[in-house]
Amino acid sequence: MKILETERLYLRELVLDDTRELSKVLSEPESMQYYTKPFNMKEVESWIQWNIDNYRKYNHGLWAVILKDGEKFLGDCGITMQLIDKETVPEIGFHIIKNYCNQGYATEAAIACKEYAFKVLKYPKVFSYTTVKNVPSQKVAEKMGMKKYKEFEKMEKSKLPK
């Protein structure tokens, strides 16, 4: 089921059958350099299950990003609830397979998610957060029209799968 559609992409709910494709980004060391470590297959499955649970709980989560041309799986992007500075807030995140980076897909999907968060979900504010060293994600946030709100010395533990 399509959740969002842009000029080049559509976003749909992740399913466990996406594990192998999503592992191309979540298990790739360079793509996951800003995380504690790349995910193994079991952790990718847990990631997908966490999002499936989020769909039920919040009516959103990270969704599969699909390139319309050729129905190619590019990664994930969406809205998750994150604990930031002792407040649970909607956060836009994404992970795009390395071969598809630097082609504007993350920005295109993230902007669509931001619009969805405000117009459909009616959130009064939306965040995007990352480590200080993750300049590529910061650039996407800037292209989305986000402004720096706060810098954390150490990021708080978020509600991610164990």
* Largest sheet descriptor: 5 strands, antiparallel
Number of helices: 4
Order of helices and strands: EEHHEEEHH
Q: What would you call the structural class?
A: alpha+beta
| CATH superfamily annotation | Gcn5-related N-acetyltransferase (GNAT)
Distance between the termini: 27 Å
CATH architecture: 3-Layer(aba) Sandwich
SS strand fraction: 15-25%
Counting structural domains, the number is 1
CATH topology: Aminopeptidase
Subunit arrangement of the protein: single chain
User: How many DSSP-defined strands?
Assistant: 5
C-alpha-based Rg, rounded: 15 Å
Low-confidence stretches: 155-162
Average pLDDT confidence is 89
Assign a percent range to the helix content: 25-40%
Q: What's the level 1 CATH class?
A: Alpha Beta
Shape: globular
The side-by-side strand order for the widest beta sheet comes to: 1-2-3-4-5
